[in-house]
Amino acid sequence: MTLGATEALQRHATRSVTTHKPVSQRRLDFEAKRPRWLRECLAEATGVFLYVFPGVAATASFLTNAAHPLGVSPFGGLFQVGCAYAVGIAFAIITCGPISGGHFHPAITLCFAFWQGFPWKKVPYYIVSQVAGAFVAGLVVMGMYWPQISAIKASFLAQGKPVVGPATPASILCSFPNPDQTNLGFVVLTEFFVDFFIALVIWACIDPANPFVSPTTVPFTIGLGYAAMIWGFADITIAANMARDLGTRMVAAIFFGREAFTFMNYSPIAILVNIPATFCATALYELLMRDSLSSISKGHAAHEDGEEGLQRHFSRSGLMDEETRRSQNTRSQEIGKTG
């Protein structure tokens, strides 16, 4: 998602769903021995699996039933695929976000490291885990739909049609440009602005100062942002996530050949364009839209020098008049003497 929603998710209200038995010391000892990095990597891989699995399955359902006798598939189309990805992203954040931070997207992980202080040493582990999650999701869908996909593949080969390209068996797993998209510059622009849109929505959703998104709505809001781009631009080829595309494209290469990576020289666009697009979107938010003072005033952040640093900022910026500053200094001195 591709997503980083831990900060929002951690503000859940305490609630009691069911009565649990007392936690044993044996259980606590077992959990304490688990490496944190392993838990985070498994959560990232599982989260990507949870959203890629229903999305690719919805695509398989649509394409394998496209030859319906009525001429229209009774199993939906792009709307169904967009909904499957949206709900999958929401479930991924809800299930795995509290453990790993819910990145589920290599470009989001890189931006968290660049803007938010996420440890750079964890970045490679997260990215490998994300790609692995998409790879496993693609394999599982291929296994579950293998009879139908095999039949379509055989039919395409019998008719002399390619099995790699748009509306082919390989396109169940990853996207390919349409025959009329010979100018890849337009494909790059489409991918860039789609990824820019998704990243901007994600960054706004995880801003604790944003009053329009609550912790409980963050997963579904991010999912809807992703779905909106599928509904609007999937017909002119988008990938939207390096992990989702690279992981499933490797599966496509296994089953349909290396052309999954070489078709119209598109794969570098699908795999790489989302990274600069996400950086541009997050830079726009961080440099021009973020209001850190609002976050501090609402208790979601603190000045690096504490209250003293905040007072200095108020004084230098003219946000606090001289009389108010003297009054607060006097009050601070009185509190110090009393303590």
TrEMBL record:
Positions of the UniProt region annotated as Disordered: 1-20, 315-339
Topology term for the membrane: Multi-pass membrane protein
Key words, A-Z: Membrane, Transmembrane, Transmembrane helix, Transport
Coiled coil regions in record: none
Major place of residence: membrane
Localization annotation: Membrane
Regions crossing the membrane: 41-63, 75-94, 124-146, 184-206, 212-234, 269-288
InterPro entries: Aquaporin-like (IPR023271), MIP (IPR000425), MIP/Aquaporin (IPR050363)
Signal peptide start-end: none
The keyword Transmembrane helix appears for this protein: yes
Compositional bias of kind Polar residues: 327-339
Pfam families recorded: MIP
SUPFAM superfamilies: Aquaporin-like
Family: Belongs to the MIP/aquaporin (TC 1.A.8) family.
Record-linked PANTHER family: AQUAPORIN 3, AQUAPORIN OR AQUAGLYCEROPORIN RELATED
Protein name listed in UniProt: Aquaporin-like protein
Lineage: Eukaryota, Fungi, Dikarya, Ascomycota, Pezizomycotina
